[in-house]
Specification:
Helix content: 25-40%
Radius of gyration: 21 Å
InterPro entries: AAA+_ATPase, ABC_transp_ATP-bind, ABC_transporter-like_ATP-bd, ABC_transporter-like_CS, Oligopep_ABC_C, P-loop_NTPase
Low-confidence stretches: none
Family: Belongs to the ABC transporter superfamily.
Bound molecules: iron/sulfur cluster, magnesium ion
Order of helices and strands: EEEHEEHEHHHHEHEHEEHHHEE
Strand content: 15-25%
Oligomer: single chain
GO molecular function: ATP binding; ATP hydrolysis activity
Protein name: Peptide ABC transporter ATP-binding protein
Keywords: ATP-binding, Nucleotide-binding, Transport
Mean pLDDT: 92
């Protein structure tokens, strides 16, 4: 099958300026990241805070301007589209944020907030729009009266469901979910994850699910990509990443996730030191200062992808020639 979204060599570099405005260097927030998302599937993008996963997600919607690479949505490169074409594609590409409180206007009734999206895209007559919003709110467990309530009248979990409703009103194909459950209690997290899965099934949705939490990702993703300092260091099916992780950094992330199956026995990995600054990333493998297996080669040479299986690849010298 052809992917719904194919990202090739995505790059986002930020210039860093000194106090007098001179360019001092650049932060390679996202460097040479490639992955594909298929219809009805979920791609989990994981890594610690600051690894570039949110920037990668936002670049795909051009909320931040990418500095390199391509992103083919249904075969068309989003990055080179004209504004009019991009506006059409944006209906199919929506986003859910960690904190819906910051994305919902506190002074606006939630029904009006959701309906606004329809108005911007000029969809339906006014009376139809209101009914469409009410129908969707009901589908997500709200009642008709909730249409006229304000965001502060709802709990965190309810607000996230309102954020989901707003992302769904245009009937999109792909939703970029950036830490959508990280601010919620564990019991509410499970409800939201189940809701996302149910909606995926009913509406044939695809998700790019961005999270620092591998135990959340395992419940929703079909494939997982692990990012470290702007690079995708390992990618595989969820099964491959959890049962047969190869990159020492993936193993480190997994060591804090409880095992579910016996096949997931984890080798404990102890990393040294802190995450380095992305402004001055280490030479060679960016993980070498923290990696217990680092050799001289790791300090000099940046590892490229080594293929483990048709769906599993890793950037680590332990597996290359
Ligand atoms: Fe560790 Fe070397 Fe592999 Fe990097 S390339 S993860 S330093 S063994
Ligand atoms: Mg983030």
């Amino acid at each position: 099958a052809t992917p719904l979204l194919e990202v090739r060599n995505l790059q986002k570099y930020f210039p860093v300026r000194s106090a007098i405005g001179k360019t001092k260097g650049q932060i390679k927030a996202v460097h040479d990241v490639s992955f594909s998302i298929y219809e009805g599937k979920t791609y989990g993008l994981v890594g610690e805070s600051g690894c570039g996963k949110s920037t990668a997600g936002r670049s795909l919607l051009k909320l931040v301007e990418p500095t390199g690479g391509e992103a083919y949505f249904n075969g068309e490169n989003i990055f080179t589209m004209k504004p009019s074409q991009l506006k059409t594609v944006r209906k199919d590409l929506q986003m859910i944020f960690q904190d819906p409180h910051t994305s919902l206007n506190p002074r606006k009734k939630i029904g009006a907030s959701i309906q606004e999206t329809l108005t911007i895209h000029n969809i339906g007559a006014k009376s139809e729009r209101k009914q469409a919003v009410i129908d969707l709110l009901k589908k997500l467990g709200f009642n008709e009266e909730d249409y006229n309530r304000y965001p502060h009248e709802f709990s965190g979990g309810q607000r996230q469901r309102i954020g989901i409703a707003r992302s769904l009103i245009l009937n999109p194909k792909l939703i970029i979910c950036d830490e959508p459950v990280s601010a919620l209690d564990v019991s509410i997290q499970a409800q939201i994850l189940n809701l996302l899965r149910q909606l995926q099934h009913e509406m044939k949705l695809s998700y790019l699910f961005i999270s620092h939490d591998l135990s959340v990702v395992r419940h929703i993703a079909d494939r997982v990509g692990v990012m470290y300092l702007g690079r995708l260091v390992e990618e595989g099916t969820t099964e491959e990443i959890f049962s047969n992780p190869r990159h020492p950094y993936t193993k480190l992330l997994l060591s804090s996730v409880p095992t579910v199956h016996e096949s997931e026995a984890r080798e404990p990995i102890e990393a040294k030191g802190e995450i380095p600054s992305p402004l001055n990333p280490p030479s060679g493998c960016a993980f070498h200062q923290r990696c217990p297996f680092a050799t001289d080669r790791c300090k000099k040479e940046t590892p490229e992808d080594t293929v483990i299986s048709a769906t599993h690849r890793v950037k680590c010298h332990l597996y290359s020639e």
